[in-house]
């Protein structure tokens, strides 16, 4: 069973995976390409996290 500390580490690793995936596109003007790679990396890593829950994401109000 995962502890809260384990979950925190897992979620940090989710963020790190997204950051690493899109890093080559920072400053390139290719927002959509970087965003797509970040989303794919995040989805891949979060699917490895052992937890029960619902992930809710969105762009927010524009």
What structural keywords apply?
single chain, mainly alpha
In summary, what is this structure?
56% of the residues lie in helices and 0% in strands. The protein is an all-alpha fold and 62 residues long.
Question: Please, could you describe this protein's structure?
Answer:
- This protein has one domain.
- The model has no long low-confidence stretch (mean pLDDT 90).
- By secondary structure, the protein is mainly alpha-helical.
- The protein is elongated, with a radius of gyration of 13 Å.
- α1 runs antiparallel to α2.
- It contains 2 helices and no strands.
- The protein starts with a helix and ends in a 16-residue tail after the last helix.
- It is 56% helix and 0% strand.
């Amino acid at each position: 069973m995962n502890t809260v500390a384990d979950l925190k580490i897992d979620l940090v690793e989710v963020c790190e995976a997204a950051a690493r995936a899109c890093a080559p596109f920072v400053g390139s003007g290719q927002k959509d390409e970087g965003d797509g790679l970040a989303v794919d990396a995040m989805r891949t890593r979060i699917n490895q996290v052992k937890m029960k829950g619902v992930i809710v994401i969105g762009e927010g109000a524009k």
